[in-house]
Design brief:
homodimer; alpha/beta; Rossmann fold; Pantoate--beta-alanine Ligase, Chain: A,domain 2; 2 domains; six-stranded parallel sheet; three-stranded antiparallel sheet; 10 strands
Chain lengths: 279, 279
């Protein structure tokens, strides 16, 4: 496994591999790797001849009052986990390499970024699409793998790839959960014991919604009321949003359609958690 | 020479060529080809093993009161000229292929687009960078060739390519002029005989600026006054801007530095003409 800081070197290596007819798979991350990431890496290894992992905490996708400075950085552990997943290259760039002096280009996806986290975290998705496009251009992957936990991010990236005619297949994998149902997230490390316990209500509430739809409930107001009640059963969570949306456009739905998605964001203390289910 | 309307087909062909080790050169145009474009094509043939020309009048780079609908379209003549330049593929897409329903992604270059035409034509460069990035992703060129007549466009595209880590070499070629000095432009077709005669003052005025710098003049206010006077010697031109700028950042200069660039935009009737010189 090679650890490369220079984007020029990663790009040259990937272009060389592709000329040799090898298929390049890519998993972009912010590090603090957990089982969710490892699932993406294992799928990457299966889909590509070569597997590139990037670890970069992208300042452009954090708001001014968000957790950029305290975002978990676990470099040595990440490298070990990556090696166990047979990663071929870790791209591990500096801020200076990604955003050199005079940097001035942004990617804007205007519609799928409008609601949900896009509304609550202004500028977040501009930061995501900008860095992901840069990473795609550096890594030149044939396939890139993302988790469905960040469902809006996955939709926004699919939108960008389609709109910009990129020859890259985007694969989304189901959210990996702990045995108690909590969606894996690097931010779970922030949670106190009590907060972690409370956070279980999020996946529980999604399960409630799913059961209601299964048993024929079609009134979205009733579903969202039940989800709200489940989450508010603990007083340690603060709901940021609960929405049921079209899975491709993320437009809010008023009645059920196949693969409708329920999406939630909630604060446990200062930690913002997100989760979603297909209904 | 193949004429291809499908972007998927062009992309697949270019990727195949690149896997075979061939170098792909690209000249993006809006058609209405003239000697300036042909110079780019000849250089493309020299620089690449395969040469792709795109002809697409991009609606996103025209303002609401600009000349989109009357922009010259000379398809048959263009195809003939391209064939004479040994173009391998003309990419000739429809609006629907470039901006399908649900299209929603824009590229913003924030600094080099600020002044000059960027200030006078709001949204113009967002349209240019968006379509050029799409065309780059479709055509997958190793090298792309642009004319210096659209000097700000060339700088903006170089900025985008650098910022987005694209593995594409951008080549700028000197403006091609008629024997009377007028910069070649598809929009020259709009000019009446009198307007065309008046338009000669633009290149003449740039020549005046160059001579002044050569003979040691360092006061930019004096140079711009002389340029203004030359252009206003005919009453058929209306100055849009005259600026002396850094050739890389396009920041306005107050004193001379190597390769400082003087840039002009002026209206001849309804026709907006631009030109520029290295001082």
């Amino acid at each position: 496994m090679k650890i490369i800081e220079s984007w020029q070197e990663v790009q040259a290596l990937s272009l060389k591999w592709k000329k040799e007819g090898l298929k390049v798979a890519f998993v972009p991350t912010m590090g603090a790797l957990h089982e969710g990431h490892l699932t993406l890496l294992r799928e990457g290894k299966r889909l590509g001849d070569k597997l590139i992992l990037s670890i970069y905490v992208n300042p452009k996708q954090f708001g001014p009052n968000e957790d950029l400075s305290k975002y978990p950085r676990t470099k040595e552990a990440d490298f070990k986990l990556a090696e166990d997943c047979n990663v071929d290259v870790i791209f591990y760039p500096s801020d200076k390499a990604i955003y050199p002096d005079g940097y001035q280009t942004n990617i804007e996806v205007t519609e799928t970024t409008k609601g949900l986290c896009g509304e609550k975290r202004p500028g977040h998705f501009r930061g995501v699409t900008t860095v992901v496009l840069k990473l795609f251009n550096i890594v030149q992957p044939d396939v890139a793998i993302f988790g469905e936990k960040d469902f809006q991010q996955l939709v926004v990236i699919k939108t960008m790839v389609r709109d910009l005619n990129l020859p890259i297949k985007i694969v989304g994998l189901p959210t990996v959960r702990g045995p108690d149902g909590l969606a894996m997230s690097s931010r779970n490390r922030y949670l106190s014991k009590d907060e972690r316990q409370a956070a279980l209500s999020i996946s529980k509430s999604l399960q409630v919604a799913k059961e209601m739809v299964k048993s024929g409930e079609a009134d979205f107001a009733k579903i969202i009321a039940a989800v709200t009640k489940t989450i508010n059963s603990t007083n340690l969570l603060k709901i940021d949003y609960i929405k049921i949306c079209d899975p491709e456009t993320l437009v809010e739905l008023t009645k059920i359609k196949p693969s409708a998605r329920i999406l939630i964001a909630a604060f446990a203390g200062k930690t913002r958690l997100i989760d979603n289910y297909e209904l």
